Amino acid sequence: MENNNYQQLTRTFQRLSRFSHLSSIASWDMFTMMPPGGSAARGEALAELSVLQHQILTDKKVGEWLDAAQSENLNDVEQANLREMQRHYQQASLLPEALVEAKSLAGSKCEHAWRTQRPANDWQGFSANLKEVVKLSREEARLRAEAKGCTPYDALLDIFEPDMTSARLDVLFADLKSWLPQLLAQVVEKQAQQSFVPPQGPFPIATQRELGLETMTMLGFDFNGGRLDVSAHPFCGGVPEDVRITTRYDEEDLLSALFGVVHETGHARYEQNLPRTWQGQPVALARSTAIHESQSLFFEMQLGRSNAFLKKLLPAVHQRFGSQAAFSEENFIAWNQRVKPGYIRVDADEVSYPAHVVLRYEIERALINGDIEVDDIPALWDEKMQAWLGLSTKDNYRNGCMQDIHWTDGGFGYFPSYTLGAMYAAQLFHAARNALPGLDSAIAEGDFSALFDWLRQNIWQHGSRFSTSQLIQQATGEDLNSAYFRQHLTSRYL
Amino acid sequence: MENNNYQQLTRTFQRLSRFSHLSSIASWDMFTMMPPGGSAARGEALAELSVLQHQILTDKKVGEWLDAAQSENLNDVEQANLREMQRHYQQASLLPEALVEAKSLAGSKCEHAWRTQRPANDWQGFSANLKEVVKLSREEARLRAEAKGCTPYDALLDIFEPDMTSARLDVLFADLKSWLPQLLAQVVEKQAQQSFVPPQGPFPIATQRELGLETMTMLGFDFNGGRLDVSAHPFCGGVPEDVRITTRYDEEDLLSALFGVVHETGHARYEQNLPRTWQGQPVALARSTAIHESQSLFFEMQLGRSNAFLKKLLPAVHQRFGSQAAFSEENFIAWNQRVKPGYIRVDADEVSYPAHVVLRYEIERALINGDIEVDDIPALWDEKMQAWLGLSTKDNYRNGCMQDIHWTDGGFGYFPSYTLGAMYAAQLFHAARNALPGLDSAIAEGDFSALFDWLRQNIWQHGSRFSTSQLIQQATGEDLNSAYFRQHLTSRYL
């Protein structure tokens, strides 16, 4: 056979994909269904599978097949698939097993202790564990950087955003910093003149769930291949054939669960529309975390919080929760477009969100590259928070650098994806509007089919066939830049 | 190390146990949570894992370790564990992979077609598929019988009930046949004099679920390590640390879901109380399908449908569903102890149930041993059904030999477990009553703790440490016999 090595690889990766299926479903179950007593056994079972997956992926034969397949006769998609296989193989085989295990243990320890350290504002205790995590992450970054020939931080960035560099991020984020703080200040000043009527609960959870399901249906979620459930931290999990999204309900707060559902539905539709013909192969997977985030923010921010969409959503809200003053058209829109800079990233609106991300990016880059130490974090956090949002986090670790768990497991390099996603989303929405005459009036009529078809054609169906740059250039005619995000924020909020 | 081979085995079986964990949870999910679109991918993922498990278990090294471990210095529990390892290894390694695969395919095909063939009463279509299943099961039985030196049917029986033989079953069932048909006739005649008030629905499903949960709590189910959900066919799944039971609700029928829950809670408490110190090892697994069934029938029939338990249950029923005439104490007891011989096994009461089992046992034994052919089944079924229950199934395949799916996947040898379980349950309850003075009054007061402690001491905590015979002799002072089952039925129904 002329592409015998490539065929061996596709069989191996299909097998890995099937094991990933089981791992995804068991993880989803862990966060949604599992009673506490199942935790230890589940952790051991998942770890055992993870060891197996690592062994299969890093087998010497896989490396040999990858080398030999380079000279086989492969079509475009197969070449893209081979490139992705190579990437997965290299990422997995670069690290010695002892380091992977040590990192996993240090991460679990740090995250577990964080649960009580955060409420106690215990920076001393937390930083001791974090130092171990950072030490191991630096070692990981060093090994990856040596192989790739780049800086340590860029080597971690590449795991989440292939081909993204901090040089490029610096340009993109410098641009953001040149206009966003002023825009934010203007929006805050403008909104200070407005009056808002907050929605009055309670909003029964069963009814909130119905509204969420109806909204998912409006947004084209395929319930034949997915579910909506509850978890402490909302996520989109499962597998492309069976996508599991979650939300969390608060009886006093209707909109956080609802827009959480809209956000996760964006992730879900990407997964549900990944190419089925290459099923089980790396080329059929989502392109990157930033492109994934761009889809959820496209749904939540570009579409979901637009005036037109909010108007279409309102009758369903009235039908279930009556027509209190907060649910007048004007107030409903205004309330969903409030901008309120605050300490907590996950509660942030889309105007102040980038502040949280750029702040963390700058700190984690310096940390991984060895320019600062863990002990330097609180002062830097306070300084940057003051500069961006005028908020002090001095001695307030729990609402500062201890507010979330992204760093506890060594997930350095992930944070930029959030703001890259917001910029991609704005650029994609702009391109869709150019490509689709009458889009705005279609949306106002509740017809999103052309918009979703455009996403399917331009993003979803390609999986990982193209690089992120190619993908975005083909879809929008240019590479990523922040102009459309600025344009979007200006037109919506000023 | 003095027991190095044994240690290798324990590591291998622990690994297998972790993979079984994932397989159990993914299977549970398939029956309770999974949307239809996930079906094909899930099937492939589970099959891939099953191939892996088979490879690990039948690895040549496992055979070598098993041989070498025989002469190592092992304590009692380790020896029992080694015996169980040996049993798993032999069962798995006896069959060529091609036969396992062919059987799995033929079973899926037969079961899938059955779903439309049963409503259409299509025996011709069904029997064509069943012939293939029987052919492959006979081949399996032949291979197992050769290795074990027994008849083909006994070799299949041994998978579910280690050490049980058809010679022994013939004695036990001949005894049943000597008294049960007459007892059944007497009960039917006696109950014909009684009047019953059927409960009037609708009984809202959410309230039925609450009652089920309260009943599980009464029965000691540990919700820290388990759940109650819904599936088309009720089952007890999951893992000992996280036991997942299911039921199905009918708005018009309160009691079928409720007693389904009681039944599955019996299975669940066995699983939840298996020995944790040997976790992940074969010796920590449940003894056999008949012992498992004995625990569910102990809960459902011995305890659950007793006058004392029904009286304790009634206030919870009143609290949720009011006090209609059917819920008078007298009628509630009578209704839950009705005996109504019918065509369908899964709807049968405990007096007529053995008829369904013995009938199938006699047919499947003859079929596997080659004494009859698939074409002979309907006539035999009709003849035996007439003899036991006075019901004709001539041309009524859908309520005769096509009523359930036990045979479609080649599960021959399983059926006897149901009636063995009923006999074990009666014998165990009798022994518990002897061992625990004041048991009846404790039950009447709703205090089941002594009873459950007795089960824990005598059955649950032993896992597979002893053979079924040893286990039952230690618990009751004698080997299995049908006297206590007869005594139980006589005292409850005559």
Structure description:
Chains A, B: Pfam families: Peptidase_M32. 2 copies of one chain form a homodimer. The first copy, chain A, contains 20 helices and 3 strands. Chain A is mainly alpha-helical and 494 residues long. A 3-stranded mixed β-sheet of chain A has the order 1-3-2, with helices on both faces. In chain A, helix 12 packs across helix 13 (329-336). The radius of gyration of chain A is 23 Å and the shape is globular. The interface between A and B is medium-sized, with 35 and 35 residues.
Short summary of the structure?
Two copies of one chain form a homodimer. Chain A has 20 helices and three strands.
Return the structural class of chain A. mainly alpha
- Distance between the first and last residues' Cα of chain A: 63 Å
The helix fraction of chain A, in percent, is: 55-70%
Mean pLDDT of chain A: 96
Q: Report the principal-axis shape of chain A.
A: globular
- Radius of gyration of chain A, rounded? 23 Å
Strand order of the largest sheet of chain A: 1-3-2
Please give the number of β-strands of chain A: 3
Strand content of chain A: under 5%
Please, how many helices of chain A?
20
What is the quaternary state of this protein? homodimer
The largest sheet of chain A is: 3 strands, mixed
Greatest interface? A-B, 35 and 35 residues
pLDDT < 50 stretches of chain A: none
Could you give the order of the helices and strands of chain A? HHHHHHHHHEEEHHHHHHHHHHH
